[in-house]
């Protein structure tokens, strides 16, 4: 384990390689699983505020799910998450011309309709955070076989997880935190 400020980081974050390979998985992380994407408490108001700009990107099924359940829901674990369409894919899923699952929130961001990329849990993936009273655990979420091709591509490109999600880690923890993690990773590599 690695400690930076008030985080405890799994060594997998610096030792394992990973690069999302949408051509292989087709965005399965947005359509598989048994719960919506985690949403932090501080993101709830953002979700409400951006919804009018995101709604035009949504599928009819996604809009209906959000109308019935809400912009976000409380999951079985008591945490906030995105609603699902009939217990399946995230209500914010849209598909590109190849049929790959993408995020409507991120599409609105890319089109400069909003200034918020997407929930931090989605931006950080394959990293998952667990909040404790005195620290935040930063762990690698292994999802085999869904992400096997992402591990293969990461290895080919020699891209450790912490570099792949650099923008998201800086967004969550700040530039100084990331620089410290980077120094530790370089030291461990030697």
Proportion of residues in extended strands:
5-15%
Total number of strands: 8
Name the helicity range. Answer: 40-55%
On the 0 to 100 scale, the average pLDDT is: 93
Our measurement of the CA-to-CA distance between the termini, rounded to an integer number of angstroms, reads 17 Å
Q: Please give the radius of gyration in angstroms.
A: 17 Å
Structural class: alpha+beta
The shape, in one word, is globular
Helix and strand succession? EEHHHHEEEEHHEEHHHH
- Tally of DSSP helical segments: 10
Low-confidence stretches: none
User: How does the major sheet shape up?
Assistant: 4 strands, mixed
In what order do the strands lie side by side in the largest sheet? 1-2-8-7
Please give the domain count. 2
Give a written overview of the molecule:
- Belongs to the Rv0495c family.
- Pfam families: DUF3109 (PF11307).
- This is DUF3109 domain-containing protein.
- By secondary structure, the protein is an alpha+beta fold.
- The protein folds into two domains: 1-20 and 125-189, no CATH class; 26-114, no CATH class.
- The protein contains ten helices and eight strands.
- The protein has a four-stranded mixed sheet with strand order 1-2-8-7, with helices on one face. Strands 3-4 form a two-stranded antiparallel ribbon. The protein has a two-stranded antiparallel ribbon with strand order 5-6.
- Strand 3 and strand 4 (80-81) form a beta hairpin.
- Helix 3 (44-54) crosses helix 5 and helix 9 (166-173) packs across helix 10 (175-189).
- It is globular and about 50 Å long.
- The mean pLDDT is 93.
């Amino acid at each position: 384990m690695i400690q930076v400020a008030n985080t405890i980081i799994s060594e997998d974050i610096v030792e394992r390689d990973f690069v999302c390979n949408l051509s292989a998985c087709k965005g399965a992380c947005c359509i598989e699983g048994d719960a919506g994407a985690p949403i932090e408490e501080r993101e709830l108001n953002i979700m409400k505020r951006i919804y009018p700009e995101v709604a035009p990107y949504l599928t009819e099924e996604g809009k209906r799910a959000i109308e019935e359940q809400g912009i976000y829901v409380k999951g079985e674990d008591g945490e906030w998450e995105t609603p699902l369409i009939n217990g399946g894919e995230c209500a914010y899923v849209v598909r590109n011309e190849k049929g790959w699952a993408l995020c409507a929130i991120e599409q609105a961001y890319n089109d400069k309709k909003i200034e918020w990329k997407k929930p931090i849990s989605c931006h950080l993936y394959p990293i998952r955070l667990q909040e404790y009273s005195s620290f935040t655990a930063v762990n690698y979420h292994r999802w085999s076989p869904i992400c096997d091709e992402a591990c293969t591509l990461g290895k080919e490109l020699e891209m450790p997880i912490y570099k792949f999600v650099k923008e998201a880690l800086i967004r969550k923890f700040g530039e100084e935190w990331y620089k410290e993690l980077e120094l530790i990773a370089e030291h461990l590599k030697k």
